[in-house]
Amino acid sequence: MTGHHRTPVTVVGLGSMGSALAEAFVDAGHAVTVWNRTPSKAAPLVAKGAVHARSTDEAVAASGLVITCLTTYDDTLAALGPAAAALDGRALVTLNSGSPAGAREMAAWADGQGARYLDGAIKNLPSAVGAESTLLYYSGDRSVFDEFTPTLRVMGGDTVYLGADPDLSALYEMAVGGTLLPSLVGFFQGAAALQAKTGRIELTISNHLTLNRTMEAASRPRAQEIDSGDYSDPASSVNLFLAGSAHDEELGKEANLDAEWHKGFHDLLRRAVDAGHGEHSISALTEVLRTPDRAA
């Protein structure tokens, strides 16, 4: 590889994130080829110097490094299907969402086309593409990561290789992303309750940020409990959380909110108590979440 500023890059998929990625490569001096199902989305990038390919086959053939940023693995497969023959010998990096099983299927397909496959995930908003703090992690073909690390860092400075198993990025993505929706719904519930009472939600934002900082500080000891399997010295017990579950129902009635989404969490707490974890750390919920091995 010559200087990373001269590495040709193809970006397939020009939604908000894909467009931000392609723009970052253009700004960094790369020769960039782009493709999108809706061609008009390529216009701003073409105005900055990118080349708009008429097909994915043409787009893949233009660069040794092909980066896809589509919604799912199925979308990626559908887009790349017509370009399968052109993938032979090229490095393919996918940045879509999906399950570990989807990543394994994608890797097997790419391998069948002769591509060198690296599965990836980007952990930030489009506006943060290129920032030193923006995290991207990858798994799969180590040679792709080693060869193109300087180029990949154009998308974000915190660039991490997780291992050779191609499903590791998807696994990490879902493990971390699993906290996003419950956290957001909790924020939305608090906002609705405050708005109903005061007409304003600024305090919700402040409290939510404070809670996030508290959770960040508490995450390491909780992780240590889970890794050791010792939940006997709780900072907050399962019983404490279960006692607080009644307050969720009371708030729902008082603020005229739909609090049904809490029921699954409350059921999980009761199951933990039934399993003998009432006086254990709340981290013991991990044990209840594990599904017993059903192998014959």
Q: Span between N and C termini?
A: 50 Å
- Numbering strands along the chain, what is their spatial order in the largest sheet? 3-2-1-4-5-6-7-8
Mind telling me the CATH class of the largest domain? Alpha Beta
Structural class, please? alpha/beta
- Under the CATH scheme, the architecture of the largest domain is 3-Layer(aba) Sandwich
The percent range for strand residues is: 5-15%
The poorly predicted ranges are none
Count of helical stretches: 12
Number of domains: 2
At the fourth CATH level, what is the homologous superfamily of the largest domain?
NAD(P)-binding Rossmann-like Domain
Summarize the structure.
The chain has 296 residues and is of the alpha/beta class.
Structure report:
- The chain folds into 2 domains: about 5-175, NAD(P)-binding Rossmann-like Domain (Rossmann fold, 3-Layer(aba) Sandwich), CATH 3.40.50; about 200-290, N-(1-d-carboxylethyl)-l-norvaline Dehydrogenase, domain 2, CATH 1.10.1040.
- It is about 50% helix and about 15% strand.
- The chain contains 12 helices and 8 strands.
- Helix 10 packs antiparallel against helix 11 (about 265-275).
- The longest helix has 27 residues, at about 200-230.
- It is elongated, with a radius of gyration of 23 Å.
- It starts with 8 loop residues before the first strand and ends in a 7-residue tail after the last helix.
- The mean pLDDT is about 90.
